TrEMBL record:
<protein>
    <submittedName>
        <fullName>Deaminase</fullName>
    </submittedName>
</protein>
<dbReference type="Pfam" id="PF01872">
    <property type="entry name" value="RibD_C"/>
</dbReference>
<feature type="domain" description="Bacterial bifunctional deaminase-reductase C-terminal">
    <location>
        <begin position="3"/>
        <end position="181"/>
    </location>
</feature>
<dbReference type="InterPro" id="IPR024072">
    <property type="entry name" value="DHFR-like_dom_sf"/>
</dbReference>
<dbReference type="InterPro" id="IPR002734">
    <property type="entry name" value="RibDG_C"/>
</dbReference>
Length: 193
């Protein structure tokens, strides 16, 4: 049985672009990159660590996979996230990549249909376009929304276009000292309510 979980760092106005670094994603002239850094604290780190401690493979869209290679693949900082990222099986979904050999333990998939054929637990961090595609295909089972208390007024949003109606149940939440809400949702099976 397959289960797909997506962790998305999001602002109050739904922006998911450029969370980590100023140069992370400047498409469309986005000038607010690195907006999440001011909200890091021990509670948020511990909550994200829980997700990393779970077994299963990782799933990426092409852009996020290529960005993560630059950050994680050659890091030697002793960070437990680094060891996890490099050791995990990584699936990258792309119609344009020639190979996934640039990062150890990576496997190239061509479509959401290829994702549907996978088994086991899969987790996504970021990769908004892939998340939207998987959501539209009914393949996303869990969301962890890391909601930051700010608005940016522009940038790529989690759902720029209407998403198909899908119901989720809140299964847990944590609020950090800096006002970030980490909300865990699980998809409700049709007819379950």
């Amino acid at each position: 049985m397959r289960s797909i979980s997506a962790t998305m760092f999001v602002t109050l106005d739904g922006v998911v672009q450029g969370f980590g670094r100023p140069d992370e994603d400047t498409r469309g002239g986005f000038a607010h990159g690195g907006w999440g850094a001011a909200y890091n604290d021990e509670v948020l780190a511990a909550e994200m660590g829980k997700g990393m401690a779970q077994s299963g493979a990782m799933l990426f869209g092409r852009r996020t996979w290529q960005d993560f290679i630059t950050v994680w693949s050659s890091a030697t900082d002793g960070n437990p996230f680094t060891a996890h990222m490099n050791a995990a099986r990584k699936y990258v979904v792309s119609a344009s990549l020639d190979s996934a050999g640039a990062w150890e333990n990576s496997v190239l998939l061509r479509s959401t249909g290829d994702v549907a054929a996978l088994e086991g637990d899969l987790s996504i961090i970021g990769s908004a376009a892939l998340v939207r595609s998987l959501h539209a295909a009914g393949l996303l089972d869990h969301y962890t929304l890391v909601i930051h208390p700010l608005t940016l007024g522009g940038g790529t949003r989690l759902f720029d276009d209407p998403a198909p109606r899908t119901e989720f149940e809140l299964t847990g939440s944590v609020t950090t000292p800096k006002g970030v809400i980490v909300a865990h949702y699980t998809r409700v099976s049709p007819g379950a309510r």
